[in-house]
Amino acid sequence: MLVALRRLNRTGHVGLAILLAMVLMGLVIPMISPYSAISSAGEQFEPPGPRHLFGTDSLGRDVFVRTFAAAQLDLALALAGVTIPLLIGTIIGAMLGSTKAPLVSLLWQVVIDAINAFPFIVLLIGVLGIVGTGLQGLLIALLLTGWARYARVARTRALTLRDVEFVQATEVLGYSRARVLLGHFLPNIYSETLAYGLSDFVLVIITVAGLSYLGLGVRPPTPEWGAMMADGRLFLQRAWWITVFPGLALSVTAIGVALVAESVTSRAKGEE
Amino acid sequence: MAEALLEASEVTVTFGDRLAAFDAVRAATIEVAAGDAIGIVGESGSGKTTLARVLVGLQAPRVGEVRLEGKHVFGAGRKARFPRGERWKVQMIFQDPYSSLNPRMRAWQGVAEAIQVWRGASAQEARMQAFRLLASVGISSEQAEHFPRSLSGGQLQRVSVARALAPNPRVLIADEPTSSIDQSAQAQLLTLLRQLQQERGLTIVFISHDLALIRYLTSRVYVMQKGQIVESGDTLRVFDRPEHPYTQLLIASIPGRTQSPPLGYEKR
Amino acid sequence: MTLTRQRVPGNQDAGAAVENSVLLQVQDLKVSFQKSGGRLLPVIDAATLTVHRDEAVGLVGESGSGKTMLCRALLGTLGRHGAVATGGSILCGGRNLVGAPESTWRHIRGREIGYVPQSSLAGLNPVLTIGAQLAESISCVRRMAGRDLQREALQLLDMVRIPRAKQILGERPHQLSGGMRQRVMIATALAQRPKVLVADEPTTALDVTTQREILTLLVKLRRELGMSLILVSHDLAVIEEVCDSMVVMYAGLAVEAGAVELLTRVPRHPYTRALRASRVDTAVRGRPLETITGEPAAVGAWPAGCRFAPRCSLADDSCRQGLQPQLRPVGRQQSACIFADRMEAQ
Q: How many structural domains are present in chain B?
């Protein structure tokens, strides 16, 4: 996968730069800022100025430091919410597509199709209803539902690979199932699911933000882009900066991820 | 005749379900003697590739069995499991060179893997042996570092041969190995296979629709039509005095020759 | 079993071309791929080919030889494949077709120069009936309707010896066998009565018995219609059986040309000789095949000097360092080898 990173073209580099900048600022700014991200730091509704670069919100909290503290949370959540389901889903899908036991495969296929039948956000809300809202709930919901999408892609790809000559050769060569799965199936599957995953990154960030906007995500005073945008909703006329800046940060991050995803997929397509 | 090294006995392969079943291969019996080069010829739909897949354990027959060195090794129903410990003895190269190798592995890696699995070598040892094995089939160390997409059809087939040779097999089944490659590459590959048979005593089963190829390389031939073996015997006899009308038709269809080429050959 | 071939005077004879019977003359054609940034990647450097009336010319070459591109150049479809003719000429009916506009090509394609592709499945529209596709082709050259149209279509199917022609008219491509489909492709091409038919590996995808039928058909059609043929094949045996003369291509060049008999008996280019010696169908059992070392020169990676030199047993320094030799007359053949005169019969 490190090799994959090295092969990014200019688009990918720009995207990666944006993301790295966001991560860095997310780490550094809350540390060096004199203001707290969760408690009042001055006047309410102060417009952006030299003291509060992004202004303050309805409780007088500095929007600048909150925006970047939120970056930490949103990025970490999106990362966990994508990479773990990606790994699990790819492996399960690959195993299902390569197995010779049709019944097991069929059973799991039903489960996967059932999960995939629901729109992502509906599914998340459903799970949140069971496990409860908040950061923990969000994470559990993302993990429980996300893997099925990748499993489906991986399984389909594995089914095709099964009939290709080099996989048949592994059977003639008497290789163990583990070796065939890890050495022959997965390397020819992961680039597809990875491409999926990269574009899902954006989806997860936006979904988390959306859920928080609806009040189903993180609880105050934890800074999170969606929650911040929701808070500022009522004050758009008077204090636009409360909503706009987190929104901008969200968009910029989404663009960064999209650029990286675009770069990876076009590279993969160009090669095969 | 000496005991056959590899045989298929009354093999029938049926595809489809109850409503639309058809026999791709019906009651086929093949005997391959050690050190021989035999051919299985037929046109499309003859079942020759299906039969080849049965011989190598990729396709389970509905009826019949495959015997290796006289012992049952693969068959129908519950016996449709080729014992892994015997796998090394029968290897295969496929028709399409472009999908015969893992596109994510460099040429040497695929060969080294086979060496590691079957010769118990360490990763480093296997890598060295892989390069050596590839060199013996005419793949330079520079070419061995390439991924399959950078190699030509002929080179890919030779890499496949190297990989198939890694476990030191007794029998190599070549399923239309030259159909998708240029003529000059074909000559190189056939020369290699012939060399392997004559110098290393490798037993080879050629599946082909190219009669000229079979005539040149093999000593025994099986002719298949619509799943059945319609004629078999000594290659030269079959070509000179074909008995079955289908064989006669096949031979008459060979393009270009006004008469049989000179029949000089060395007795084995 | 062989088929008698008509001996045609003037086939590829160097310098003895009978002017009024030359239908198609390709001279020093150069074709390149158009890459990004305006770069040109040469794929044919010097192709020369002459087709006389009532002549069958074979075009032989391996991958990278440029023979497929030459076919496309003859049909004016280079643009569709990102290529362009950059030099030389294609003379047909007194016109040079290199650089001709699409309007000119629309008259030539199909009507002067016909085409039968390798894959009949790809060449036929899967949703139209055979009759409809034949009708389309016929309508390009004649105004016909109703019963006249059907009669013409049946006549075409009869020409290619398709049984139950009336029934076939109503069927769709997937219902026919490969051999039947190929006959339909030929009929479609014949509908426009081309003077020259370009058949690009017409039998490669077919079974050997079907191949025999199609080759027999092509020879018969040539005789009955007096139509010329350019047969592209990698199979020398097929060329020998059907063609009067042949052109051998290697790495974008025509390296030898002449009557099939001559090239078979006395090849005057090391590549032709090596191809012949590496054939399986004339190989002697028990004796090793002659192989050509190395790989065919790939497009974009042509060696300096003579392109065949790295694999040639006769090559010396002047071959490797000099310019690529051009096709020149050697007796009644043409060869691009400086040692052509010295190559004697085997």
A: 1
